[in-house]
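Exercise 7. Predict the joint structure of the components listed below.
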Amino acid sequence: MRLKRFTYNFGCACVLSVAFAGAVVASPADELKAANQLYDAGKFSDAIAGYEKIEPKTATLFFNLGNACFREGQIGKAVLNFERARRLSPRDPDILANLKFAQQKLGVDELNAPTKAWQRFLRSAIDSRTPGEWRAFELTGIWLAALAIGLSLWLHRARTALMVVSVAAFAWSAAAAAALSYQAVGERAAPKAIILAKETAARFAPLPDATIHFKLGEGTAVSIYEDRGEWLYVERADGQQGWVKRDALARIAME
Amino acid sequence: MMACFCAVAARADVSVTASVDRNRVAFGESLTFTIAIQGTQSSAQPSVPAVDGLNFSGPSTQTTVSIVNGAMSQSLNLVYQITPTRLGEFTIPAVPVIVASKTYQTEPIKLMVTQGRVQEDLRQSLFAKVRLNSQQVYLGQTAPLTVVLFARANIPLKGVGAFTYEADGLGYRFLQNLKSGVNTINGEAFNIYLIEGAISPTRTGSLAFGPCAVKAQLAVQRHSSGGWPYGDSILDEMMGRVEVREVPVTIDPIPIEVLPLPEEGKPADFTGAVGQWNLEVTAKPTELAVGDPITLTMRISGSGNIDTVATPQLQGLDGFKTYDPTSKTTKDELSTTGERVFQQVLVPKSTEAKQLPQVRLSYFDPVAKAYKTAVQGPIHLAVKAGNGSSTAVLAAVTPVRPQEKLGRDIVYLKGDLGPVATMAWYDSAPTFWALNVLPIFSLLGLIAWKRRTDRLRGDVAYARRTRAAKNARKMLAETNSFDQVQHALQSYLGDLLNIPVSGITASIVDEQLVPLGLNGDLLTALKKCFEACDNARFAGVGNNEAEMRATANKVGELIDALEKIHL
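Solution:
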């Protein structure tokens, strides 16, 4: 009798604990599903809140968050999240399409691109790979170069071919290293950000009454060159520079 | 019997004479003119004065040397061939001849060229004519003009040499490859050579073809005595009595009137075609669907210059999409006949295109001396509605569908969370740098090892020195007699100094190691080791296990000390 009661109590405790745990700790996939349902129901602000609390952040998550922001009318924030998604998955056609569409909607797609054709090409080539992929390319190249040189010490007949391979592999590695440096050093020296405010004045000095140099529209991409707390010194893709208020923008790379 | 006329001009023992083989000759024959210089074999070639009506060729030289009764005589003959070019009396003037800086003069020689039986016969037997359909031609017309060389059957005509002509403004061309054959005139057979050509006048007016000359190549007997000189019998050839001689046959100028194309009756669509042309027009297919292509072939052929024929103009092609026509031209070498085929692709735009229009070609017929227009067509078509399977041609002619304006929006949500990645990607991981450095150091190590391996393989002294201590220590570890101890020491020193092990003695130590800077204590210790080994081995002094081990340890310490100082 006691055994039966114990078994019953233990079983109930297990069921309740599992149920309680399931209710309290939902998986990220479930949370994403729930947020997507809110999106489908037209509750975009709730969907945004749902997406923002999900951890860890993935390209899909930023993509869906960008979509919800877009539907909510926060197109600048949509551009920001599409940019974040692109950094994680740079060749995803859906992400690229939505980013371009959102930028076009705000009229900043041309403004955010480098002015010269070769710069656009280079930027596009570098941004088409994640830093992890560039690292892999760089390591593959340098290992292949070292291997080819090492083999050439013994394989005298194939020395010419191996030297060609090593030079090519080294060049490949150097190119990958350059791209990686551009991404890493560039982001470290001048972090990229997106203007979220509808219109932001870029001033000649970090003062509220300083002369306005130019204005930055929502969704404009800028590079932050100096951080003075409330004020940030930014540069637009066309090279125009000015001071803007910190709360007018958000960095693409999350803290 | 050679007729001879001699003139002698003597100066000391040199004499110069001029002579001809005969001084009466029939027109058409040649004679020999010889300048004989006695008493020398060298002379500047004399300049024979030009004589109107006589053609000089040569000279050929003949030298002779003779010794009679011990007296030597020598002579030089300059032989010319003279061919009269007209009848009459001629005088070969005195010819100045310079011998040894002295000038000698020959005497003038008279010649008579008569119209003998031979020339009369030749003129009847060898002549040329021009064949031209009409002496009136039109500008743009191409008319055949052939020069025919006739030779009677008894004339041994071997071929035709140079052909020269004058044809200013006539644009005359002729074929280099001559045709030969036989032609009958008044029942008599003549051998003929045809120089086929054509004129294409470049300007209007009264022009002329000629004079022109054809050089007939005849077989001639070398030594004719005034009779019929022509012949090339096998016997003559075998006897060497035949040579080929070129006889010029001239043709007097022929007037040719070049007329401009008349303005009267010129069709509006006339584009400059002159000749006699036929026009054939075909179209394929004639049963087709809208959008299918039709190939319209217009074949123009006939006599005249085909290059003057332009693409026939087609009118009334509104119901068709047209493409630029292509053409292919074939013609003879003289452009007297030719054919040009035009092909044009037409695509019916609708079922209303029920026929291809007439094709017209207007040209000027120089024979009829009038403009003519060749007409072909119309060609009826059966065009049905297109079934949508037509190719790009159909797409090109069908009206362009209005551009559909597609809606645009953002791409819908994704359902899968996807792979997780960190945003702090620019922080370089230590592993990454280690993986970068590792291959470089590995490669450097590999290179160093390879170089060392190669050196060990190729440099015996280096290899022995490198392995000396290791080998000696190994031997010392396994030693159990003074012989082996000494051998280990000898082996070490031999490897160290790269000399044979058998030659290592205590005296060698002084000779080899002192110059290398070995200090006194080590030297002494080395010598003591050798001495201890020798005493034990040969005198039996201290030849026991303990002494042997002690000596071996000492040798080991010596090796360690020598390794440290890097000799």
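Discussion. The CA atoms of residues 533 and 539 of chain B lie 10 Å apart.
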